[in-house]
Amino acid sequence: MEQGLLPEGEKITSVDVKDWIPKRRSSAVLETATRSEEELTDYCRSMGLLVKQVKEWRAISIQVDEKELTENIRADRVLRDAKNKLRELEKELQCKDKALAEPAALLMLRKKFNVIWGNSGEDASEFLYL
């Protein structure tokens, strides 16, 4: 029998369900997923399992997958919202930078004017705002 998901050389031989670690349970669920009810019964008999156990494992696997999918969708939404917020904040910052650029340039011009003409800056301020 093919052991699909188990490491090479490892075989499922245990008949004690307590020894079935999650990896082996997943392997059994995947190996029986496409089997008919009769084939499932034969598989379970050869492995010392009950059909009910494999069906329970399958149901648990589906629930876990659905939960992970829901969590992934929620995480994607949070990430998308965070990216949108970041874009908004970057735009706001650019607007504020542009708004501060003009007064900073005028202040630099006033200082240069004072250095060149040696004024106290009173005449320069009138000149710059005309």
Automatic annotation (TrEMBL):
<feature type="coiled-coil region">
    <location>
        <begin position="72"/>
        <end position="99"/>
    </location>
</feature>
<protein>
    <recommendedName>
        <fullName>Transposase</fullName>
    </recommendedName>
</protein>
<keyword id="KW-0614">Plasmid</keyword>
<keyword id="KW-0175">Coiled coil</keyword>
